[in-house]
Specification:
Elements: H1 2-19, E1 45-49, H2 53-70, E2 74-78, H3 82-91, E3 96-100, H4 107-114, E4 118-135, H5 136-141, H6 154-157, E5 169-173, H7 182-188, E6 193-197, H8 201-214, E7 219-224, H9 227-231, E8 234-236, H10 244-252, E9 263-271, H11 274-277, H12 279-287, H13 292-303, H14 309-319, H15 321-324
Parallel strand pairs: 1-2, 5-6, 5-7
Antiparallel strand pairs: 3-9, 4-7, 4-8, 4-9
Helix pairs in contact: 2-13, 2-14, 13-14
Amino acid sequence: MKKLFALLLVLALVAAACGGDTTVDAGGETGGDTTVAPSGDKPTIRLVVNPWTASRLNAEVAKIIIEKELGNPVELVDVNENDAMFTGLTDGDLDAVLEIWPSGVTDAEQSYFEDGSAVNIGELGTIGKIGWFVPSYVIDEHPELATWEGFKDPELAALFATAETGDNGRFLGTDPSYSQYDEQIIANLELPFQVQFSGSEPATVAEVEARVTAGEPIVLYWWTPTAAVSMFDLVNVELPAYNEDCAASQASGDGGVDCDYPEDVIYKAASGLLQAKDADVFTFLSNFKITTEDQLSMLPPVEIDGDDPVAVAQKWVDDNESVWTAWLP
């Protein structure tokens, strides 16, 4: 019995030693020597996931490639507030965020880049646009609602009213932690509307789906690229043009925003400590690119079909090896 126990122990130790050189793919099969398994000698990389689908997909793609090709374990960290995100980048608890919308960066947050706590590591490759959206049938029935002036009419505003908003129309916000200026825009343009928050991106999509199915009016904070824009045929309402004064109000937080959101050239940021922590990962994330078209190919399976973001990210990686190999150091 003692000899049998000793033999089993030796076999277990051999199996454990060999296990460090194998990986498991999305289908559950063990791989050979074509990938680099996460190593205990390499630091864990902690990537920010903001509370919207595209942010998670970006991070899932990066995680798959870093773990497979560079050998670092990767942890995805859900972060809902910019303050916590920038504090985490400053002290090294967070290593990088892959989707920053410039229109949401305040003067206080910009100071993290100025003192080197955070480092701009280049454009993501995606162009975003936040704004006010309505289903196309709203404008078909009331063409004046194609621009903000139509929303000044109390009778038209009443079309959007709910029990909670009374005589005012409801403007549907999303997650309250998002960078948004709709309450300021409504107050400064003197529109008879009240902002109500759905609480999350999925909750907003569910509400839009219910309203569109019923053919009812709805106006909401939304953005592109998202699958919902094409799925529900959403149209961007024309607000007063973005300008320098409005940009200054957005950045300073003085409450004076009365214009549209700007077009956002989305960029990435890393902790000022990341390059010293792992130069290869820093290089990889600096080279990392996800285009608008890439996001639009991944978003519908998640947002419409309900597919697992990990599986969708894995498919993108499998289908685009010639793209991401160029990002490697």
